[in-house]
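Annual report, structural modelling task.

Input specification for the pyridoxal-5'-phosphate complex:
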Amino acid sequence: MRVPQIDLTREYALIEDRVKEAVIKVMKSGRYILGPHVKELEEKIASYTGVKFAKGVASGSDALLLSLMAINLKENEGVITTPFTFFATASAAFRLGGIPIFVDIDEKTYNISPVAIENILENGKIEEDGTVINHKGKEIKVRAIIPVHLFGQSAEMDKIMDIARRYNLRVIEDAAQSIGAEYNGKKVCSFGDLGIYSFFPTKNLGTYGDGGMVVTDNEHLDHMVKILRVHGAEKRYHHTYVGINSRLDEIHAAILLVKFNFLDEFARKRAENASRYMKLFEEKGLLEFVKLPETHEKVTKHVWNQFVIRAEKRDELKDFLKEKGIGTNVYYPVGLHMQKCFESLGYREGELPVTESLCKKVLALPMHPFLTSLEQDYVVEKIKEFYHGI
Ligand SMILES: Cc1ncc(COP(=O)(O)O)c(C=O)c1O
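The model returned the following structure:
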């Protein structure tokens, strides 16, 4: 049997006719960028999130960049974030001349630790638009926190928002992996000043290419994103700011409108698969070798973009599963604080121990809405074979 980590072809087979019809309609329309489909998608996603505004952009990475540009992050200003995430979360600040400040994560949820955020801020000098801290021998004005809702699970947004209010920081929620997830009954991206989604193909709402969105309740920030995505032009050829070119294509918006209808149903299927994995691991007596993903008690909806276990002898297990036709991935093998391109930030091995230890143990198993129970049985059976023998 072959079980890929993700299989997008099965989903396409289900929606093929609708997607073809939607794409052809756009091609015939003569409007290809920031047209009526983008507007409709923006309205749908804003309302789904529970905020007033949304703007379609070219990718989740650009959505982060534009959010930081919208709050006017300046050179040498700090942004607190997690090192256990995709690169784009931290590179956005770095590209603007800002300083990503990495703090450690919670071992159980893999999300940024509110205690670690507070620790870094607590002796700082609070100012109107941030808090000045002494970090690695430098005075840095921290302007924002970017919590990431990793693998489909919300970060601890009540605590993070409380810290942000006390230290006058902006919050940009990175929900690239977690559209539709809820914390305390409220959707992610409705807590912070801004929130971002990615429509990369493997995300819970993914297109057949790149795309992203910025959502907010703040009219000024929405306006900033709206003009910054078109080179900072308030009016065509009249540039108030130096922005970038980062627009969502009509074709992608049309595809996403088709897929939006399945978003909650697919999240439910992912959750069913997650429960089934948990049951199988328990039944097969694997819990001494494998730690299962844990859900925070205030997370009212987990959307399971990934099912990530912590495994003994992770690399050997990964190779063994590959031989048996089972696809897995390591998200993430190296913390962002240890990436070569961030050497200048001055982090050393051992500084963020929870992240570093998880990087050696995590393994993402096959997970998508179309995973069958037979496939799951096979995956867990092979994991049992690895640890217990046949
Ligand atoms: C947590 C996180 N942030 C940001 C991004 C960037 O999104 P995109 O790939 O659409 O640029 C991703 C996607 O891979 C992600 O997983």
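The chain has a mean pLDDT of 97.
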